[in-house]
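Practice problem: predict the structure.
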Amino acid sequence: MTRASPIRVLIVDDHFVVRAGLAAMIGTQPDMVVAGEAGDGEQAIERYRSERPDVVVMDLRLPKVGGLEATVAIRNEDPGARVVVLTTYDDEEDVYRCLMAGAAAYLLKDSLHADLLDIIRKVHAGERHIPEPVAQRLAQRMGRPELTPRELEVLRMVARQLDNRAIAAALGISESTVKVHVSNVIAKLGVADRTQAIISAHRRGIVRIE
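Answer:
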């Protein structure tokens, strides 16, 4: 009887200690092998092209190219690519965007290592996995209308405390148009004003406040 080939896993994380820990854990499994490692999104795309792993374990917050963008790029080149997102972030917008990009699983880093190993096997077998807490956040996000690219631009500038005049100048549009976009953002987020819009957008992961 021919023994099945081990599952080849590409590990993507910008922290060496995390990559080393995951590699050591995967290395103990007789049915898995580390196919490569990457410390940023650009490297992840390059390693995927060169190694063609069976499963990618992908962090979200990466330098150069983010984990979401890297997932999109990889799956655009190979629609059959299997990506497990492993992150500390459970914002509903992150969950939504990753799963819409084709990630097969979304797992939080505080989960047990045994969970990750089991999920790698399931994803390799063609299954998808969304933990219950993550599924609840996804359900919340699915019920809300999308912000347009322009509304997202305006929202990010509002989050930087720019007023309508400054936003209009930066985007090359009129102040009245900015007001319309701000009103649409407030309505879509279901909040009362600009301040609540910033708080809500940050909590949901739509914008980041440094």
